[in-house]
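Re: the 73-residue chain
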Amino acid sequence: MGNISINQSVAILCDGNNIERSIHELSKSKNSMINFDKLIPKLLNERGLNRLLYFREGKSISSKFAERLHENY
C-alpha cells in the first residue's frame, strides 16, 4: 500500500481590536503585545499559510508591524 500525502494550507484572520483588548485585560497592562512570530507557527502546526489578514477597526496598525507581517508571512 502506498503512502498518502495530504497538504493543507490555512488562512488566519486576526481581529486586532479583540486581541488587544483581551491581552490587555489578561496581563493588566496596556503595553502587552502578542508575539506573532511564535503564535503564527503554532497556529499553522506545520500547514502552509494561504492568507493572513490582520483587521483593526478604527485604527491603523503601525507600518513597522505591517511590514514585519508581510515579510515573515
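Strands lie at 9-15, 48-55.
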